[in-house]
């Protein structure tokens, strides 16, 4: 562990435990995260171990920065052991009695939530950023009381400026928007926007997916293209999908449970191509698919799988109904 990382870990610990960082230090933390992929990797190593239940919540506060360093070195040594862990109920407790539970667990569970420094007027609230990796989901409550569930492999940022509550989303999230007729809630995602006052809806906008959509569970939302040349209001039980050219919006009636069940670790699908199913499995089970049989990509399936099921179990079920074969090498799955 280098001294530069020690410096930033100390800053992050200070921010999350006491909130005593300066505006300049807050900026440094954010820039450090964005600057280098290794910085994200360090965070996700810690996060993976936390998700596996490997931290004793009774750990006492670390006595020195040296103990922080020792802890992170132990994590680096042992993290490979847990890369394949799929079952969320696994509980193993380390007996590190002097490491910083208050600081470290706070850092992990916060999912990279940091306050931006206020640079403008009091009309603009500090924002927050949330990033989730493969196999990760989180729930957060925004300052206005809105509840948000954020799916795997997503980036989410929120801020309020004047009367507008604004979210930028890459990935997928379920929103329960706190009703406030004076302050519209707007989600911008991959070429389209969703405007709501008080409602529940799902926005899907993964960069590597063909589908950019909004599913309305309750209330009412207005869905528009990025340039707002086309807008449409949808009703509960309807799905608005943006066309590949980002110019048109198609509306259809759907079963909302198919789109919201992921919040509870369940993935439901009807007539979904194996290519799209594979993308879901990559996000939920921390794997990568490589197709040597392109025909398999376009076969459609209906069914349900759960996060706690192993990837081998899921693929065996699919294999029964096809002529597909596969091999697994670490976290890479080859389809033949």
Helix content: 25-40%
Tell me the number of helical segments per DSSP (H or I, 4 or more residues long).
Answer: 9
Strand content: 25-35%
Element order: H for helix, E for strand: HHHHHEEEEEEEEEEEEEHEHEHEHEE
Please state the structural category.
Answer: alpha+beta
CATH architecture grouping of the largest domain: Sandwich
- The chain-level mean pLDDT equals 75
Rg of Cα set: 21 Å
Largest sheet: 13 strands, mixed
Alpha-carbon distance between the termini? 42 Å
Low-confidence stretches: 46-65, 78-124
The CATH class of the largest domain is identified as Mainly Beta
Give your account of this protein's structure.
The strands form three sheets. Strands 1, 2, 3, 4, 5, 6, 7, 8, 9, 10, 11, 12 and 13 form a 13-stranded mixed β-sheet that branches. 29% of the residues lie in helices and 30% in strands. The chain folds into three domains: 3-109, no CATH class; 128-258, Sandwich (Jelly Rolls); 265-335, Phage tail protein beta-alpha-beta fold. A hairpin with a 2-residue loop joins β4 and β5 (164-176). The protein is built from nine helices and 18 strands. It has helices at residues 3-18, 23-35, 37-51, 65-78, 101-109, 257-260, 274-285, 294-297, 311-320, and strands at 128-131, 138-141, 147-150, 155-161, 164-176, 185-189, 192-196, 200-205, 212-218, 221-225, 231-234, 238-242, 249-253, 266-273, 288-291, 300-306, 326-329, 332-335. Mean pLDDT is 75; it is low at 46-65 and 78-124. α1 packs across α2 and α1 (3-18) crosses α5. It has 336 residues and is of the alpha+beta class. The longest helix is centred in the N-terminal third of the chain and has 16 residues, at 3-18.
């Amino acid at each position: 562990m280098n001294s530069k990382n020690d410096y930033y870990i100390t800053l992050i610990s200070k921010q999350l435990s006491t909130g005593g960082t300066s505006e300049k230090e807050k900026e440094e933390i954010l820039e450090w995260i964005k600057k280098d992929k290794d910085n994200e990797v360090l965070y996700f190593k810690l996060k993976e171990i936390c998700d596996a239940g490997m931290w004793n919540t009774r750990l006492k506060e670390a006595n020195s920065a040296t103990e922080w360093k020792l802890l992170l070195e132990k994590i680096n040594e042992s993290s490979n052991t847990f890369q394949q862990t799929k079952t969320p109920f696994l509980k193993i407790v380390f007996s590190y009695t002097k490491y910083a539970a208050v600081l470290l667990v706070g850092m992990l569970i916060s999912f990279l939530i940091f306050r931006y420094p206020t640079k403008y007027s009091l009309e603009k609230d500090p924002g927050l950023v949330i990033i989730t990796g493969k196999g990760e989901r989180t729930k957060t409550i925004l300052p206005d009381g809105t509840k948000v569930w954020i799916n795997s492999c997503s980036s989410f940022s929120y801020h309020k400026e004047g009367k507008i509550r604004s979210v930028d989303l890459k990935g997928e999230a379920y929103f329960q928007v706190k009703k406030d007729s004076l302050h519209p809630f707007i989600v911008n995602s991959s070429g389209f926007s969703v405007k709501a006052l008080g409602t529940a809806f799902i926005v899907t906008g993964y960069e590597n997916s063909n589908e950019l959509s909004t599913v309305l569970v309750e209330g009412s939302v207005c869905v528009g293209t990025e340039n707002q040349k086309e807008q449409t209001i949808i009703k509960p039980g309807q799905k608005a999908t943006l066309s590949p050219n980002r110019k048109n919006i198609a509306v259809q009636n759907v079963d909302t449970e198919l789109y919201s069940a992921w919040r509870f670790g369940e993935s439901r699908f009807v007539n979904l191509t194996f290519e799209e199913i594979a993308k879901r499995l990559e996000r939920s089970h921390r794997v990568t698919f490589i197709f040597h049989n392109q025909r398999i990509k376009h076969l459609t399936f209906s069914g349900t799988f759960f996060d706690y099921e192993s990837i081998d179990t899921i693929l065996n079920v699919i294999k029964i109904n096809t002529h597909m074969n596969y091999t697994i090498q670490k976290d890479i799955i080859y389809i033949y």
